[in-house]
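Page 42, continued from yesterday. The earlier attempt failed because a stray header line got pasted into the input along with the sequence. Redoing it now with the clean sequence only.
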Amino acid sequence: MVENRLDVLFNPKSIAVIGASNTLMKWGFLVFHNIIRGGYKGRLYPINPKEKDVFGIKAYPDIKSVGKRLDMAVVILPAPKVPQTLKECAEAGVKTAIIIAGGFGETGEEGKNLEGEMLQIAKNSGMRLVGPNTMGMYSSTANLSLLMPPIPLRPGNIAFLSESGNLGTTMMQSAIVNGLGFSRYVSVGNQADLKIYEFMEYFIEDKTTDAVLIYGEGLEEGREFLNISKRLTQKKPVVVYKSGKTEAGKKAAASHVGAMVGSDRLYDSAFRQSGVIRADHSFEMVDIVSVLSRQPLPKGRRIGILTYGGGWGVIASDFCGMYNLRVPQLSDEIIREMDKFMPPHWSKGNPVDTVGTLDISIFRKAVETILECDEIDGLLVLGIGGYSFFIHYYRSFSLLTNYQLSQMKNLLCDTEAQIAKDLIGFIDKYNKPIVVTSIADVVMSEAARILEDNGIVNIPSPERAAKAMASLVYYGEYLRNVKRKKKK
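This time it went through. Structure tokens are written below.
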């Protein structure tokens, strides 16, 4: 039933945009432009009594004038006009509606009454609503970029639900810059009708989605959320960033989307029971979902660390310990093997420190040697992509000839780019996760660009890389526990 209802939302064959406009910088202008620019192939009807056409598409004075039953209506009007507009949509047989406007339950009693009136109209007609107070949605299968801000979206395998439109679109931009793509995105707003857990239930069988990302402020329907999470996490990983931990955060959430925020400890317990991975801050969401959507799950907690310099290795070890991951000593046999090609003063242990050698071909040998170890379940690679800064600096501020610069590029950047390609192949070859930490810029570094084009996000700190690896470990353990319980 949920699948049938939401299929219309994610794959609409016809859309009316009520409030579509030719006036620059109006939301009716931006939303309509984004739908067209995104490549939506269905039938599109701008509704505006003051316009003959919008972006060259014939406009209609009201939705009744279209004369056809429509899958979706997008309402871009002030809150007081929404109930009457929804009545007209119901009479025209609209199946789903997205309410962009704020000014409802998040603003106080008068707004709550408006929201209640709007919801009753929808229930009486069988129409489903997204919002109000939403920044829109995206669906890769329909080429539908129904969003307020202009975001060059990339199709992918991650579904994203957000109670904040602003945070949601910001996180999508960050993820896309880092090489990830999305199957679905919904800015759920106040959730007057459609709730987060209903979308989650749809994603259980959604073939375009392999991982689910959620930003939540209230998550009030705790029992439903928990029950659906348990079913969803047995098939696909779920990452949640739950805000409203403090009293100040709870008050902000109430004024933002009208959310009632409960005990943070209860949420922690519920997430653990249902296999949900919790992110501690916003950009960590992207780190964690990137590895869960692309990397194999480790068979245990034993983590290898490979670094260009000692400091990052120490920090990574500390944070692995904080997340109850093990950083085991390498066997004498592995150390003897690595002695054959490592610099004389390498660390001779785990973390494996290459002590800043400029012969970066050593890095590739070290990666493969560590992955071949039976005592290592996953690998943190710290620092790849940084040699692009060498070339950038010497091009701008040195006396090197073009020939010398070319040689340096071959020895450093080109070799590092090949290592990036090797890392992608090693993940599949050894069926072990490799989490990469780098401050490299994809614009400047070919190695970073190669990784991110293949969905391997360059996580910018060893602390965040350790958390991402821990998330893989926890989810793997959760699935194994579920499997064991089912056998009993």
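Notes: Confidence is low (pLDDT under 50) at residues 252-260.
Reminder to self: strip header lines before submitting.
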